[in-house]
């Protein structure tokens, strides 16, 4: 559950959140919609007012809120077992458009009462029942009142212990949800067996923009099943198939209608055990569509790649691509990575822990120069980066939009961090907000000194991590004093990770004085050495 919550959080700057009290009392459609847009990428816990509000108080308020459009009582342990007292009042708020009951410990009686109540709120557009295990096995009781013409636009059932029978029912229900735009079934590992029914239902949801099947027990066969539905989802913007470890090998024989998703902005395939043949087929999938379109039949391997190179721009709306934790693609993704240069809108490229080899990293480095819109670049846990950061020199110089750079556990050496310091010193990476250099234990004190002397130029930096590996402990050098001096000149920094760096007594005193004198809150996370 925590992994999913983290995934849905933006790598960029956290957006301000409106008070949950205001959300509860809101009747304005415009304000409600704005709040929904602001929070759509986060699953943050509401304020204490909502958490501690008893159902009896909620019931007392409902008669006075006939124009209420949003009711969010998620993360409220008081709700479980007492939801019926709220649902009995639903006829008083018939204009309700948003109902969120995530992690409320709903009981079987609760979900049955909810099913009856949904009939009283025909204007409902969003329903979130995530993290309620009793929803599993009882989904028909909740959603059976939905009729054709339902206005539901967003349905979230994350980690609800859905059964295969629930999946089958959902597949039959989907054709009635013509307005559906967001469907999140993540962390329901038993619905893979009913994917045929779900995919059949998806063919009738032509307005769908977000489909999340993260950790749903999908198999190799699932790719082909979903592939048949993709051609009907022309409006799809986000597709998440991540953390389905048995998916690997499934793309080999797929016709990959994925390329038909011309409006796709986010594609997440991290930790899917992608094989070398998968990577080749994903690229050939683009070729297959082009060949059908131009009726070309290249016979040579070179011809196939040339045609593929012409096709990738069809996905020109792609903004986020996550291929991380697919270690088998490390030595086979050179051609795919080299084609990313044709994705002008790409803002986030996450390819950490892919066991990249020298050739694939070189291809990626040459491609990254052309990704002028890149804001998030994650290469962590790829050892080949160490000693070769110079290949990214031009990228780092030209990346005017880069906000997040992660190079954790990349076997960086002193020369790498000196190069990075020189790039920073010359005014590049000025927009960087998060920099992760952790678990690179081979960098000597001279390298850290050079880096800390220049980090002060990153005026927008909010997070810096230079922690050591869990098994390693080292004394801080004189560079720590340079770091403290730099931090004073960084107006937005709030978090500095330096776990397992051992501070001598004199430096501990300097840090204590810094903590007492500073006018803003900066957290030095130096745990692990005491």
UniProtKB/TrEMBL annotation:
Region Disordered, residue ranges: 1-52
Compositional bias ranges of the Polar residues kind: 42-52
Pfam families: LRR_6
Bias-annotated ranges (Basic and acidic residues): 28-41
InterPro entries, alphabetized: Leu-rich_rpt, LRC31, LRR_dom_sf
PANTHER family hit by this protein: LEUCINE-RICH REPEAT-CONTAINING PROTEIN 31
Protein name: Leucine rich repeat containing 31
Source species of the chain: Macaca fascicularis (Crab-eating macaque)
